[in-house]
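ugh ok fine here u go
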Amino acid sequence: MVNILASYVGNIPLAMFAFFAVAFLVHRYYVWNRLSHIPGPFWASISCYWLLRTSLRGNMHRDFKTVNEKYGPLARIGPNELMCSDADTMRRIAGVRSKYTRGGFYEAMKFNPVQDNLLSTRDENVHFELKAKTAAGYSGKEVTNLEPAIDAQVASLILLIERKYLSTTDSHRPLDFARIAQFFTLDVITALAFGDAFGYLESDEDVHGYIQMTEDTIPMLMALAVLPWLVKIMQTRLFRSFIPSENDRLGFGKMMGVAKEVVDRRYTPGAKPQGDMLGSFLAHGLTREEAHSETILQVVAGSDTTATAIRATFLHILSTPRTYSTLRSEIDAAIEHKKISSPITDTEAKALPYLQAVILEGLRIFPPVTGMMSKSVPPGGDIIMGVKVPAGTQIGVCAFGKTHSTATFGPDASVFRPERWLEFGDSAEEKEREKRMRMVVDEIFSSGKWTCPGNSVAKIELNKVFVELLRRFDFALERPTKPWSSHCAGVFIQKDMYVRVTERTS
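structure:
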């Protein structure tokens, strides 16, 4: 009897192991089968391994594009994740009346673990309320002296180059354009957001350690974004250093601490209203807690992506002699005929056709936001491009796939060629083709109910910076065969883009 009982007890662990093994296999089969009718890499269909590896290796934008090229415009990249490169589909998903909601990806965008922001919130009602309070500020519509504030930072950029980075026949002073572009966009956004620039260009240093923080943290953050369940578990611990305190203000925490001090001063009884973004937020009813979280989003969203757009476009200008010379000729002719001021105004820049073509082509060839930005299929499921997709499936957008589509942009879609924006005919078909191309590029700032409210400010920066640089200086890449270090983590971490700058002699 004792032997029988011992045998029974001894078999319990084996029985439990067998039970859990069977349960695991059944679950894996269910996970695989749920989206098995949609093609994609095998490992992506049964685990998060493929997606996590792609997020960590620094080539996410190309990997997503390759998947859609190989498996079709709707491809499986995870157990519950799809990637779509079809512009019409993603535009429908983002429509104002769409029942789609933000997916789990956005959980990682909560820079303050106790407070959502306009980007991180998945609640449609909360998003609507935050957008109503912040849209006028983010867009710059209620920012006093918007253009002069940007012009002041353009002037600081020019002054820094003249002071420290002009090379001559007797001296070699290479400039890391990637770094200085980040300084420029950080000073622009802090000037517009808080009324005073933080002084990156003036000091030529990483004030508050922001850039170092992004290089250390953002890749990990974006990798976690593909594992939203892990974000929920880790978030408080992960962002502990982001919460400002008197003893902990390193990296992002230090930046957040400075922003918090600015916010707290604005909410002090008797504080005077200010004509900056934060002042607009307060005027529209943003609470102190909401403002603490929103100010960090202002800096991150308003600097990193615009810096990437400036770097990538400028890199393609410098590496394409035809573009460089044509753009310079247009700028010089506009100066000679007194068609542009010094500094150039946004209105004047919009009247330079080749400049606008270069900016559009730069955004197209290298869209600055390439994370999944996933949306969740609504209850009842959906039919996407003729394929049934169950509710709760996460649909990511393939930015590089959309902007490099040969169906939209022609057989040379992989080539940087601004002239494509100046070759439209007068027929109805040609006007429709132009409209479609422009819509796809505009959608790099998202679209519909999730449109980035700050894209108008970014476009003003792009309209000014290339003209003001090229009218004063000659540029050449220091290392044409390896022009920069670029790591894609949903957004780009870029550095070591060294250029030789000389003063123009004509």
